[in-house]
Amino acid sequence: MAKQHLKIGTKRFSLPSSPIVRIGIGILLVLGGLVGFLPILGFWMVPLGLVVLSVDIPAVRRFRRRVEVKWGHWRRERRAEKARRERESAQVVASAQPAPATRRKSAKSQAKKPGSKSAG
Q: How far is it, in rounded angstroms, from Cα 33 to Cα 99?
């Protein structure tokens, strides 16, 4: 039988080749996670145990796959929403900036030139 692997993110972990041992490890992880309030044991063990069990138990595999798909949709929507908010805030900032100031004539250029008529 081929060696089973568990892939989490970019990491790949080897699992025992015996289905009995894998199921035993998965059950122990889930049970250990249920008493996660105790030292050393933790609630993190429940999802890890379910992932190990999903290698051999089709019902758990379907559940894991549904969770993965829903999580992927949620992440994609979250990224799209974040990008949309960033575009909107960039547009708001761009429209809120004052128009560039026109160049004012310097005092020298406003002074009366010799020979020009002055009122008075």
A: 61
